[in-house]
Design brief:
This protein has about 350 residues and is mainly alpha-helical. The chain has 16 helices and five strands. Helices cover about 55% and strands about 5% of the residues. Bound molecules: tryptophan.
C-alpha cells in the first residue's frame, strides 16, 4: 500500500508559532524522513470560505501568505505537492456523495465544530456550509487516498468523522476507501500552544499570536508582555509552572544546548522549573531566556520568507503546478469512487 500524507490549513491569516510547533515542524520532519510515496499540503481556501464567505478577499490574500510560511519553514515544493483546495473541483463532488452518509445529529456532535460555533456566536442559525465542512474534510483526505494526516489535536474529531465516512462507504459500496490516521506531535506542549495571553489557544481572532513573520522587536515585546503565573508577584514568591505559557513555550522550544548558550547557571528545563517553583526566580529572567530561543528559531524562517516574498509569481506558479498534479490524482480517485457506487451511465444499455 502506498504511504500518502495529506494535511492543510485555512488561509485566514499568516501562520504563527502554534502552527509552527503544532504541525509545520512535524511536516518538515516527515518530509525529510522521506518515508512516504506522496505528500500533499493543501491550502484550504474553500473551507476558509465556510465562515468567511463575506470576505473572499481576505482568504484570497492569505493564500500566498500561507504558502510563504510553508516554504520558509522548510517545506520543499520538490518533495511535497502544495496546492489550493478550490482548484480541485472534484473535491466538491466527493463531498456531495459523502453527505448521504452523515446525519445532521452527527455533525452537530463534532466537538471542534461545537467549539467554533461557540466562539463565533452565529446569530440565530448556522450555515449549512459551515456545519458540513467536516464532510468536505473527509473528501480532502480520501480524494488522495491519504492515510497519514499530521494535525493539531483540534483536528482529531475531523479525522474520526472521516474514518466513519470511510467505513460507511465501504460497507455500502464495497472496499474502496482507506481509513486515515492522525499523527500528532509527541511533545504535548506543541500540540496546543496557548496564546501569549494564556488563553487556551494561539489564534488570530484572539490577537494573542507570535507570527513567523514578526520582526525581532515585535517578538521581544510580545514575549516580555506574556501572561505568567498571576500569583508570582515578587521574585522570591514560589511560582507555578503549570498553565504558565512561558514554561509551556519553553517545553515546546527549548533544548539543553540553549542553556549552555543563554543561561549557563542551569543545566536543563527541569532545573529552571524547580527554581521557579521554589521561589527566587523572576519572570523577566525566564522571559529573556525564552526570547533568546524564539529569536534563534524564527530568524532563519523570517529571512527565508523575505527572500521568497521578492518573487511572489514564482510562489503562485508552485501552487498552480501542485494543483494540476493534485487534480489529476483526485480525478482518478473520483472515477474509482463513482464506479464503486455504480454511477456509470455511459454504457448503461450494454449492461
Ligand atoms: N481544518 C483544517 C484547519 O482548520 C484545514 C484542513 C482542511 C485540513 N482540510 C484538511 C487538515 C484535511 C487536514 C486534512 O486548519
Amino acid at each position: 500500500m502506498k504511504r500518502v500524507i495529506l494535511t492543510g490549513d485555512r488561509p485566514t491569516g499568516k501562520l504563527h508559532l502554534g502552527h509552527y510547533v503544532g504541525s509545520l515542524k512535524e511536516r518538515v520532519r516527515l518530509q525529510n524522513e522521506g518515508n512516504y510515496d506522496e505528500m500533499y499540503i493543501m491550502i484550504a481556501d474553500a473551507q476558509a470560505l465556510t465562515d468567511n464567505y463575506g470576505n473572499v478577499q481576505k482568504v484570497k490574500d492569505n493564500i500566498i501568505e500561507v504558502a510563504l510560511d510553508y516554504i520558509a519553514s522548510g517545506l520543499d515544493p520538490n518533495k511535497v505537492t502544495i496546492f489550493i483546495q478550490s482548484e480541485i473541483s472534484e473535491l466538491t463532488e466527493f463531498t456531495f456523495y459523502y453527505m448521504n452518509l452523515v446525519t445532521l445529529a452527527r455533525l452537530k456532535r463534532n466537538p471542534t465544530v461545537k467549539e467554533e460555533l461557540k466562539q463565533k456566536s452565529f446569530a440565530n442559525d448556522i450555515q449549512v456550509g459551515f456545519l458540513t465542512y467536516p464532510i468536505s474534510q473527509a473528501a480532502d483526505i480520501t480524494a488522495f487516498n491519504a492515510t497519514i494526516v499530521p494535525v493539531g489535536d483540534d483536528q482529531l474529531p475531523m479525522i474520526e468523522q472521516t474514518r466513519e465516512i470511510v467505513r460507511s462507504f465501504n460497507n455500502l459500496y464495497g472496499e474502496t476507501l482507506l481509513e486515515p490516521k492522525a499523527v500528532l506531535s509527541d511533545n504535548e506542549a506543541c500540540q496546543r500552544l496557548p496564546g501569549i495571553d494564556g488563553k487556551a489557544k494561539m489564534s488570530k481572532s484572539l490577537g494573542n499570536c507570535i507570527y513567523l513573520s514578526d520582526e525581532p522587536e515585535e517578538i521581544r515585546k510580545k514575549v516580555m508582555s506574556m501572561y505568567t503565573d498571576p500569583n508570582h508577584l515578587r521574585v522570591e514568591d514560589p511560582g507555578n509552572v503549570k498553565n504558565n505559557p512561558v514554561f509551556i513555550y519553553l517545553e515546546a522550544f527549548c533544548k539543553d544546548e540553549h542553556f549552555v548558550k543563554y543561561l549557563p547557571e542551569y543545566k536543563n528545563l527541569d532545573e529552571l522549573k524547580a527554581h521557579y517553583k521554589r521561589g527566587g526566580l523572576g519572570d523577566v529572567k525566564v522571559k529573556k531566556f525564552l526570547n533568546n530561543i524564539l529569536q534563534e528559531v524564527l530568524e532563519p524562517v523570517r529571512n527565508k520568507r523575505k527572500e521568497l516574498e521578492q518573487n511572489k509569481e514564482k510562489i503562485m506558479e508552485i501552487l498552480f503546478k501542485g494543483s494540476d498534479k493534485a487534480r489529476k490524482v483526485a480525478n482518478e480517485n473520483l472515477k474509482r469512487l463513482k464506479k464503486a457506487m455504480g454511477i456509470e451511465y455511459r454504457n448503461y444499455c450494454n449492461n
